[in-house]
């Protein structure tokens, strides 16, 4: 079943004035360029944009608002020029409250579904490291421009977490079945050059300004195209994955809870957190 293809009512709104959508919450800020109709959505959770329940809630809310507005494209980026997004907030998984843990995973599923299923074109401007959930955000976008000298990948297995089927699918679509299988299992982190080679990102840039130019160039390629045909084609490709995820979501939440509550995982997490701190103190 098609979730939302292109609502013809939106077309008439496109032809009127552009609305600036802005999030009142500081965790995510949105700026819409009235001339182009492109929104820049910036993740603002210092220090590393780790995905807490609250940050994911804001991302979903922002994308929903943009979907209801008349924007023509979106660039997703980070306030920091060092970390795009450090993945799920590890503290959400340390001796967690079970209800909150379930809510965290459910919101991660929602974040994936809403970003993956936008009717408007999306570009990730990856201006810093993007491990695990950071890579997930980038994968949801249609196009990825990455600044040099950072790392990206689905490193979940390195932490003792299983990669869920819906995210495996997005990785498969991006880098191909064989490579996705190998690198999801290994938890490979790629530097920018290798990420380009394997197709995990589409273009590299020396710095943020150049990355933004490249991102806007991608969005501009749709300027003369029928928004209906563009949006319908994208969603006809992606909606089945979203419906599949939704059908299996309860089972997926329980698999994650079981994974996180396992004592080996909890012990490993303590060691991992300590290794992050040691690395910092070196
Ligand atoms: C299961 C599959 C579905 C996918 C979804 C979720 C799975 C996940 O996302 S699990 C999380 C995986 N993330 C990581 O493994 C990243 C860990 N972090 C790093 O590698 C580095 O921090 C990073 C390269 C992102 C940035 O390096 P630096 O710029 O050098 O910063 P620091 O390492 O000094 O970090 C600053 C500060 O932030 C804390 N931090 C880092 N990452 C996280 C995180 N994911 N969650 C919570 N907190 C995080 C880090 O410990 C430092 O804290 P302080 O020592 O208190 O300053």
TrEMBL record:
Protein name according to UniProt: Hydroxyacyl-coa dehydrogenase/enoyl-coa hydratase
Gene3D superfamilies, per database record: 2-enoyl-CoA Hydratase, Chain A, domain 1, 6.10.250.170
Top-rank taxon: Eukaryota
Short name of any one Pfam family annotated for the protein: ECH_1
The organism's taxonomic lineage, starting at the top: Eukaryota, Metazoa, Ecdysozoa, Arthropoda, Hexapoda
CDD domains listed in its UniProt record: crotonase-like
């Amino acid at each position: 079943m098609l979730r939302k293809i292109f609502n013809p009512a939106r077309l008439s709104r496109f032809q009127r004035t552009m609305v600036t959508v802005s999030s009142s919450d500081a965790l995510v800020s949105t700026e819409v360029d009235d001339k182009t109709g492109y929104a820049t959505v910036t993740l603002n959770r210092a220090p590393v944009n780790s995905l807490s329940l609250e940050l994911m809630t804001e991302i979903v809310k922002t994308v929903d608002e943009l979907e209801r507005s008349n924007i023509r494209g979106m660039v997703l980026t980070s306030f920091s020029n060092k970390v795009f997004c450090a993945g799920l907030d590890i503290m959400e998984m340390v001796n967690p409250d079970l209800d909150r843990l379930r809510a965290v995973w459910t919101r991660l599923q929602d974040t994936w579904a809403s970003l993956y299923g936008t009717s408007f074109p999306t570009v990730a401007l990856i201006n810093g490291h993007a491990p695990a959930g950071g890579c997930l955000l980038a994968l949801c976008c249609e196009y990825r421009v990455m600044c040099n000298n950072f790392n990206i990948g689905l490193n979940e297995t390195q932490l003792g977490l299983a990669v869920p089927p819906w995210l495996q699918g997005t990785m498969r679509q991006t880098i191909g079945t064989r490579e996705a299988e190998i690198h999801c299992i290994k938890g490979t982190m790629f530097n920018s050059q290798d990420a380009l080679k394997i197709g995990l990102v589409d273009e590299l840039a020396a710095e943020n300004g150049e990355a933004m130019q490249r991102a806007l160039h991608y969005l501009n390629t749709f300027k003369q195209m029928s928004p209906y045909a563009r949006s319908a084609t994208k969603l006809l490709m992606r909606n089945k994955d979203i419906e599949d995820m939704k059908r299996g979501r309860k089972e997926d939440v329980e698999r994650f809870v079981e994974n996180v509550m396992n004592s080996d995982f909890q012990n490993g997490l303590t060691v991992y957190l300590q290794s992050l701190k040691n690395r910092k103190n070196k």
